[in-house]
From TrEMBL:
Keywords: Copper, Copper transport, Ion transport, Membrane, Transmembrane, Transmembrane helix, Transport. The lineage of its organism: Eukaryota, Fungi, Dikarya, Ascomycota, Saccharomycotina. The chain crosses the membrane at residues 53-72, 183-208. It is found in: Membrane. One of its GO terms (molecular function) is copper ion transmembrane transporter activity. This is Copper transport protein. It is a multi-pass membrane protein. It comes from Pichia kudriavzevii (Yeast). It comes from the Eukaryota.
Length: 232
């Protein structure tokens, strides 16, 4: 006979109202905080815990499951970075070009000559008085710009300083993001069983996952100075 998934309290009442036959193992499911071990079920009927050893193995598996989720997130980030580095080397793009103009001149305002009026009057370094803007323009202008969906067709007008993945790379990235999205929702369903042992296991797994796979640099600063370096 197939298992019936009902709240554990309702199953108890049904068993007490029965003919006194021996109670079979049934899934304990509750939408409230619980500490169920034996007869706890997760995600599918086949994931039915029938012993304490099986529950311990479930917690260990969930722990490494969350750690693997943290690894996947870092893997996706590093894959994007690898695509950028590969294309920069392939096309001979200097990293300095991201902060400087085509002629190697720095775009940093702090490095411009304050005595030169021509630079301040040029279109590349046009000074805008933000106090003269109409009230509310700071809110509506970015919103309308986003709704215009120019970012959606931006790849049609590729610029020299913008790096896009090729179609195969984009398909691979989409597949990786799909995996991350699917795993995140499955972990959310595990959390919604409100099992105290499982929730504690997931918290510890995420902590150690971040501890292992998210040790990344906060920023890059030049040696002996905290000022933005010139490209000259």
């Amino acid at each position: 006979m197939s298992q019936v998934f009902l709240p554990y309290e309702m199953q108890q009442k049904m068993d007490m109202a029965g003919s006194g036959a021996a109670t079979s193992h049934k899934c304990k499911i509750s939408m409230l905080w619980n500490w169920y071990t034996i007869d706890s079920c997760f995600l599918a009927r086949s994931w039915h815990v029938t012993s304490r050893g099986m529950f311990a193995g479930t917690c260990i598996g969930i722990f490494f499951w969350v750690i693997s989720y943290c690894w996947l997130h870092r893997f996706i980030v590093e894959y994007d970075n690898s695509i950028i580095n590969f294309k920069q080397k392939k096309h001979g793009i200097d990293a300095c070009q991201s902060c400087c103009g085509p002629a190697g001149e720095s775009n940093n305002i702090a490095n411009t000559d304050d005595s030169s009026e021509d630079k301040h009057s040029s279109s590349d370094h046009q000074v805008i008085d933000v106090n003269t803007n109409r009230p509310g323009s700071d809110i509506w202008a970015p919103l309308l710009q986003t709704f215009s969906h120019r970012w959606f067709i931006g790849w049609l007008k590729k610029k020299d300083n913008v790096i896009y993945p090729n179609p195969l790379e984009h398909i691979g990235r989409s597949g990786l993001y799909l995996m991350e999205w699917t795993i995140s929702y499955l972990l959310m369903l595990m959390w919604m069983y409100y099992n105290g042992y499982v929730i504690i296991t997931m918290i510890l797994g995420y902590f150690f996952g971040q501890l292992i796979f998210n040790y990344t640099p906060l920023t890059v600063v030049p040696a002996r100075t905290y000022m933005t370096p010139s490209c000259q």
